[in-house]
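Narrative summary of target 7.
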Amino acid sequence: MQSAPTITLDSYEITLSPMTLGDVPRLHELSIGVNWPHRPKDWMLLIELGEGFVARDEIGRILGSAMWFPMGERLASIGMVITSPRLQDQGAGRWLMDHILERVGARGKVLNATKAAYRLYLSMGFEPRQTVYQYNGVVTALPDGPAAARRLREEDAGTIVALDAAAYGASRSPVFERILPVSEGTVIERAGRVCAFALCREFGRGHVVGPVVAETEEDAITVIRPHVAAFKGRFLRMDTRAEDGPLRRFLEASGIPLYDTVTTMTRGEVPPPGPVTTYGLVNQALG
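Modeled conformation, tokenized:
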């Protein structure tokens, strides 16, 4: 039987092992330690959707994590790469990423890099593509806007999965199988065809709007506006790659400020932009 990979960092002997649902309490402690907002339920969702590794010390404490998520047959999203603050300058992140990249193999790779991890990913062959703007805060207002969206119906599920695939470049049906039952949704329907949608679910400190897929920023605003209305006075988050324009101004006018940015980076062959656009991410790990 092959022994588990180990490495010595800052006098700690670190062992790599597969991530399981039993690790959730300690993973939650790890993410809190770097000020990430993920709840235990958020970790559970990700573990159900992907494969991950944890780095443990000699007494079982989790000091690092990394995950990857298959997106169709040719693409993978990498995320939840966290190292304990005391090991961040000791090579733990690179060690975890080396194992993730080995598992991902020849698939195209996409991730969203924090400022702290950006140089590491550059050194590993990832190239910057777009900025992701993280908006979050307590909704204080509902700006004027079109009211053309309707509620998502059960029979819309197949259509929005296909619309998401057209925007993302790969089918993410397993993601939708998990998030649809716990989401509220809105769509725009024109001439009997659904052409935009937004989902909203519990995440982190409150709720997150995403994914959001539409042909234009105006349509994106139309499908997110009902969610903003529903959470007036409560915490709401949206991660978007939209540059400065109507969508981001709408979020700011709602009282949801820009909180942070990360950088979408890719390595290998990834799909080109599709006929519709992902205006809101599921989360930063899943894109």
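Residues 33 and 84 are 7 Å apart (CA to CA).
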